[in-house]
Design a protein that fits this description.
Elements lengths: L1 H9 L7 E4 L11 H9 L4 H11 L10 H9 L4 H14 L7 H5 L7 E6 L7 H10 L4 E5 L6 H4 L1 H14 L9
Length: 178
C-alpha cells in the first residue's frame, strides 16, 4: 500500500483509482514500531513464519495447508535475506521520511481512493485506517469483520466484492471489464 500510494503521489496522471489494504506509510510510525517490523521481517525460519501467520490472520486455522512451507521457501530463496535486511532497515530508519498521507490528501479529488482494513488487524491496527480516513477527504474506509491483516486471503469473496463495487463506481475512469 505504501508503494502504491507513493507512486500515486509521484505520478497522479497514471493512476485512475487506488485501493489501500491495511497500509503503512500514510501516517508516521510510532516510536519503535519500525524496529519491531524490521525484526519480524528478518525472521525467516519455519517457526517464525508460522508465528507470523498466527499474528497476521484473525483465525490462524484458516492458513491453507502448505502455506507455511511455501512462505519458508520464498523467504529463503536466493537474495531474500539481503532483501529483507534492506527492507528491515527501511522500516527502522526511513519509512517516516516518506509518509504520503498529506500528499495523497491533496489528490483524492482526482484519485478516488478506498481504504480496506481487517477489524482484527494486529499488524496495522484499524485505528490507523480510521486516522488515515480522517486526513484523506472523500475517502471511504471499509472494515471487514473477522479478518486480520490479510482480508483478501481470509474473506476473498467479501474483499473482492468491495473492491469491484468501488472500481465499478469509478467506471468512467477505470476499466474493470477484466
Amino acid at each position: 500500500g505504501h508503494v502504491a500510494a507513493h507512486f500515486a503521489c509521484a505520478q497522479p496522471g497514471r493512476v485512475s483509482a487506488l485501493v489501500l489494504v491495511g497500509s503503512l506509510g500514510l501516517l508516521p510510525l510510532a516510536e519503535g514500531v519500525g524496529d519491531l517490523i524490521s525484526g519480524s521481517i528478518q525472521q525467516t525460519d519455519r517457526e517464525s513464519i508460522e508465528r507470523k501467520f498466527e499474528f497476521v490472520f484473525a483465525n490462524p486455522g484458516d492458513v491453507a495447508p502448505g502455506t507455511i512451507e511455501e512462505e519458508f521457501r520464498i523467504n529463503n530463496s536466493r537474495g531474500a535475506v539481503e532483501s529483507f535486511a534492506r527492507l528491515g532497515a527501511y522500516f527502522s530508519e526511513g519509512i517516516n521520511d516518506h509518509v504520503v498521507g498529506e500528499k495523497l490528501a491533496a489528490l483524492t479529488d482526482r484519485i478516488p481512493t478506498l481504504l480496506l482494513w481487517g477489524t482484527g488487524d494486529k499488524v496495522v491496527a484499524p485505528e490507523v485506517g480510521r486516522a488515515a480516513k480522517e486526513i484523506l477527504p472523500g475517502v471511504d474506509l471499509i472494515e471487514i469483520s473477522g479478518t486480520g491483516h490479510a482480508p483478501y486471503l481470509e474473506k476473498p469473496d467479501e474483499f473482492n466484492g468491495h473492491v469491484l463495487q468501488f472500481l465499478k463506481s469509478q467506471r468512467s475512469s477505470v476499466d474493470v471489464s477484466g
